[in-house]
Amino acid sequence: MSSALIQLVRDNFPTAVVGSHENQGDACVLLGPDKLVEVCTFLRDDPRAAFDMLVMVTAADYLDFPAEYRAVASPVDEDNAYGVRADNMPRYEAVYALLSLTKRHRLRIKVAVDGPEPSVPSLCDVWPAANWGEREAWDMVGIKFENHPDLRRILLYEEFEGHPLRKDYDLRGYQPLIDMPHLAEYADHARHR
User: Each residue of 107-145: b (16+ CB within 10 Å) or e?
Assistant: First the structure.
């Protein structure tokens, strides 16, 4: 069924697909960012796919990742509409794991993006469950999710500088200190219960 899912996406969105692969039943489609919402809405609504659940949103940074390994992790079509090749793959990938509870199949969607402020469209309008996963991917890797209803840090404090899962994040850097006077108030309140 996995190859049928890949073919379903390819048949309905031929110019949106950058590449695809299947390995031991694990199907994956690499899309261009401009078609992400349209393809995912189709995958949710079309009865052949019926992806009613977004299981996970994550992101990856492939800085200095050898092209031959990247070509295995995210193979691309030679004639894709985006001009992406194995040797010029964008640095970042937003990754989505989809599940159909009724059809009992899975599909992984990847979107490769680049630039100092990489961005992809938010999928919160397609699957509300994307909210926290997109916030975490932004917080940790720095991929901005356009039109997200509340894109702010979820694991780190707002004053934190940078994105710690980027490969070029300075591990010896210092972060701004923030005052936390309210912690004493919480401790005092807990003592008097």
Answer: bbbbbbbeeeebbbbbbbebbeebbebbbbbbbbbbbeb
